[in-house]
Amino acid sequence: MTTYERIVILTGAGLSAESGLDTFRDQNGIWAKHNIEDVATPEAFARDPQTVLDFYNARRRSARHVRPNAAHVALARLEADFPGSVITVTQNIDPLHEWAGTKNLIHMHGEILKALCAHCGARKPWEEDLTVDLVCDTCHRAGGMRPDVVWFGEMPYRMEEIYDALGACDLFISVGTSGNVYPAAGLVAEARAAGAYTVELNLEPSEGISMFAEAIHGKATVVVPAYVAKLLNS
Ligand code: APR
Description:
Radius of gyration: 18 Å
Structural class: alpha/beta
Shape: elongated
Oligomer: single chain
Distance between the termini: 6 Å
Bound molecules: adenosine-5-diphosphoribose
Number of helices: 10
């Protein structure tokens, strides 16, 4: 196996599926039960904020009661034991990467255990339900507290850092994502353009399968630990 020096890992909802969190586009996924336009856009928050907050309150409660699985743990081990650099870019808003020990982490779609004031932009750790009458303790205005997550139509976070890391990486690993949502789905093309070897670890072929040099399909808790072991023993 080739030895690599700089790895970028992209993860999606499939990574947390075996921890008990729903994915988005699988048969009983989140978007089979909810309309994006009602719960995950700035327009929905302006129109009916409590419905949006209730949707994320339920997801926050679920996220607080699950644990990292063997795939999260293997990725944290890769970061800890790999002699070169490892950066993990996640689309997931759950805290399971951190709870597994991953440190060099970018939440490009935000974090469910953080709140953001839409009035003043203040961010703070948040574990309880959000309600429309909450007052921000920075600007002292009510009605602006929202989950610190990126809604459809909003720009993902830390994109410049992500593109810099992709421009320098020699191995790009994509785990548990369907490749439906941009700009995340376009990151493999950026890595390829930088000359990186690209690997997909997913239950089934993603929309972007043709962009990957290699694909290993199966459950994350099986294929991720095996691939990490191969990398660390090479
Ligand atoms: N192991 C590995 N892969 C899995 C598993 C599993 N146990 N279970 C499901 N998968 C795969 C599915 O085959 C699918 O390809 O994970 C992928 C999940 O895809 P999506 O549900 O589309 O989730 P994701 O790609 O993370 O969505 C991207 O879309 O809705 C928005 O902002 C949201 O971050 C999210 C973004």
